[in-house]
Specification:
Number of helices: 9
Helix content: 40-55%
Strand content: 15-25%
Length: 284
């Protein structure tokens, strides 16, 4: 597939989701996309858009070889979901370059070749519903229980240098952040506390720098709530309709909506990367 065709398909997916959401003026399309973010947080923004455009109900996608290694096989007649895979080449340093690796003794010809992104290629993945075979082992089944995730989220917050406190005095607010400090309302249920803490750390990550001056308070609150929605969905929590008024904030501007969604996706992916446990290998 030619590069231009790949680019067009990606742009088509982005435009379809964002424009459809803006035209509807409702949250259904956006909620569908945020759910895709939660399910595929390890994918890029563009690939999430491609998956959501082609198969909105997909929950677990992989290539044919991966499915085969798990004892599952693509059903006859199923159509693959196109995504983009990076192509990495290796560039060997020139002899006159100064080495930065302390183990090379500054000899360019002794240094390892450096990985370098050279482009993208079209590949196809398939959702689990398009396959059949062995049942997959359940890695995590949360279903409303944040045990483990809450503790890892607290560590994630502390690792970013943010001081976490609890107080009854902030009521009726459930949480507040001040730039380097988060205070949560004392006595909340574990799931509600988890969602609130994700919301507040999203503010710390997104809205304590230049972006704060470029956005309005409603936009900042909605971005933080969208991050909380994605993270909670990813760990099995239902935290309401975070996308309810998101679309209307952008007044028909698809470009600004796309920029906002990109920062939401990136922030949620960083948080999930910090709190998701390593999968335990299934016994043979």
């Amino acid at each position: 597939m030619k590069l231009e065709e790949i680019k067009n398909k990606t742009n088509e997916a982005v435009s379809y989701i964002l424009v459809a959401a803006l035209e509807s003026g409702e949250s259904e399309v956006l909620t569908q996309y945020l759910n895709a973010m939660a399910r595929f947080h390890h994918y890029s923004f563009g690939n999430i858009m491609l998956i959501a455009r082609q198969k909105p109900q997909a929950t677990n996608v992989a290539g044919i070889r991966t499915w085969n290694s798990l004892g599952r096989f693509v059903k006859r007649g199923e159509k693959g979901i196109l995504i983009l895979a990076p192509m990495v080449g290796y560039r060997k340093p020139h002899r006159d370059e100064v080495a930065t690796d302390i183990d090379t003794n500054n000899a360019a010809d002794e240094r390892r070749a450096e990985p370098q992104l050279v482009g993208f290629r079209a590949v196809y993945v398939f959702d689990i519903t398009q396959t059949e075979g062995k049942e997959l082992p359940a890695l995590t089944e949360v279903q409303g229980d944040v045990s483990g995730y809450r503790e890892r989220l607290v560590k994630f917050v502390e690792a970013r240098g943010v001081n976490l406190n609890y107080s009854e005095r902030i009521a009726p607010a459930k949480g507040v952040s001040f730039g380097g400090k988060i205070t949560l309302l004392s006595g909340m249920e574990a799931a509600e506390e988890f969602s609130t803490l994700v919301h507040e750390i999203a503010h710390e990550m997104l809205h304590q720098g230049e972006r704060r001056t470029l956005t309005t308070k409603p936009v900042r609150e909605t971005e933080a709530e969208a991050v909380a929605f994605v993270v909670c969905q990813a760990v099995g929590l239902d935290n309401g309709t975070a996308a309810q008024d998101y679309i209307r904030l952008w007044h028909g501007d698809a470009k600004l909506l796309q920029e906002s969604l990109e920062v939401v996706q990136h922030t949620a992916a960083v948080i999930l990367g910090g709190i998701t446990p390593e999968p335990v290998a299934a016994a043979a």
